[in-house]
Amino acid sequence: MAVPRRRPDLHAPHHLHPADLALAAVRAARRVIAPTRTTKEGSTMRTTKLLAGVGIVALALAGCSTGGSAPTESGDAGTGDSAETYTLVLGHAGSTTDPRQWAAEQFAERIEEATDGRVTVEVHSDSTLGTWEEMIDGLQIDSVDIVIESMLSVEAYTDLASVETAPFLYEDEEQFFEVWGGDLGDEIQTAVTDASGYALLGNMYRGPRELTTKEPVTELADVQGLTIRTPSAQTMLDTWNALGARAEALAFNEVYSALESGVLDGQENPLDAILFNSIHEVAPHIAETHHMFANYHFIMWDEALQGYPEDIREAIIEVADEVGEEYTDNTVTNMADYREQLEEAGAEFHEVTDREAWVEATQPVVEGLPDQVQTWVSQIREM
Predict the structure, then answer these.
(1) CATH code at 239?
(2) Which of 146, 264, 288, 324 is the most exposed place for a label (fewest CB within 10 A)?
(3) Whole-angstrom Cα distance, residue 281 to residue 129?
(4) CA gap 189, 294 in Å, rounded
């Protein structure tokens, strides 16, 4: 399978730091080549990544030295030899109080138990490995092994992922669960993985995304001219521009200061991200737009996942699913509590009175999505 390239109409790649590249090269050079799928040209992605890493390490070591530990492996790769051990690096952009940290720690604890200690996980929060865009890019070169992010994070590699960011797609979370707990959700995830090269493991429901602003928003007219931060997924930028705002892609760890300084007028996210990253302190008005529902996933580079011994690979998938189910249950259980905590901290919730106007304004965005995505959109809206 060839390395997917970012679509030329989307944002340029987010480059990794030199130290990350050097560490990635060291890890790649020391990794045992596991069984891989062969391309039409007779080469394999896993081998290509290894050789690329060897080339990078020569350059990296000439100019700098870097710390870090590579996975420790012994025995024949792919045999499931009990002597083999693996250290996985897991990163996310949330704080240590963010639910993603809980998911990361649970995954680390359970995968070590499930594999009798053969797999250990290093957890890195707070974007310490880079922005989520940099971490997603880093999965391809082994500078990180797992990233907790949503499907929108791979939209730069396949526009099929825009099904997640299609605006006003779901009426409520029951409809969302029907999709992602059924065959259609499986079909979408498989198609996105095949097209992008990224495996999306586990479904961790986040709740609906809401708009938070410095001033109240109750109708579409209130959004006009506001500078709103969104993730760098093109469909989300298009959505907020279509609503009359000025959409700006900004790293999430810069959002608080940008709101505080007045660079931004607002941002959009589920309640957990708003609460646990203190966004309500600088943008206390929360408009209940419900413009998007999404899951987090444990995202891996699929070639890397397929390269592990079968028992390790199955354990990774099973633990991701297990943690995902509990994460979803926690979200549903805690949503009312998140709202209460936000209100107690001074946030104000506002009902959107003209939802149909928002839906109508963003319909051209939906109509501009790929044919396959529009087919999925139609199927979802009929459920």
Answers:
(1) 3.40.190.170
(2) 288
(3) 26
(4) 13
The residue ranges of DSSP E strands in 164-239, in sequence order, are: 198-213, 227-230
Cα–Cα distances in Å, from 74 out to 30, 78, 199?
11, 11, 26
Q: Would you state the pLDDT for residue 10? A: 40
**DSSP output for 337-381:** HHHHHHHHTT-EEEE-S-HHHHHHHHHHHHHTS-HHHHHHHHHHH
Query: Does the global pTM surpass 0.70?
Result: yes
pLDDT over 90 at 20, yes or no: no
The pLDDT assigned to 277 comes to 92
**Residues contacting 150, CB < 8 A, separation 6+:** 164, 206, 294, 295, 296, 297
Q: Largest alpha-carbon pair distance within the chain?
A: 64
Encoding tokens for residue 100?
């993603």
33 located within any domain: yes
Question: Under a CB-based contact definition with an 8 Å cutoff, are residues 202 and 130 in contact?
Answer: no
Q: In total, how many domains does the chain have?
A: 1
Instruction: Output DSSP code: residue 102.
Output: H
In a domain, 36, yes or no: yes
Q: How many CB atoms lie within 10 A of CB 300?
A: 26
Percent of the chain, pLDDT > 70?
Answer: 79
Distance of alpha carbon 381 from the chain centroid = 24
In terms of Cα–Cα distance, which of 106, 140, 141 is closest to 123? 106
pLDDT given at position 186? 97
CA distance 256 to 238: 23
Residue 3 counted as domain residue: no
Residue 60 lies in domain: 18-381
Is a pLDDT exceeding 90 seen at residue 25? no
In a domain, 4, yes or no: no
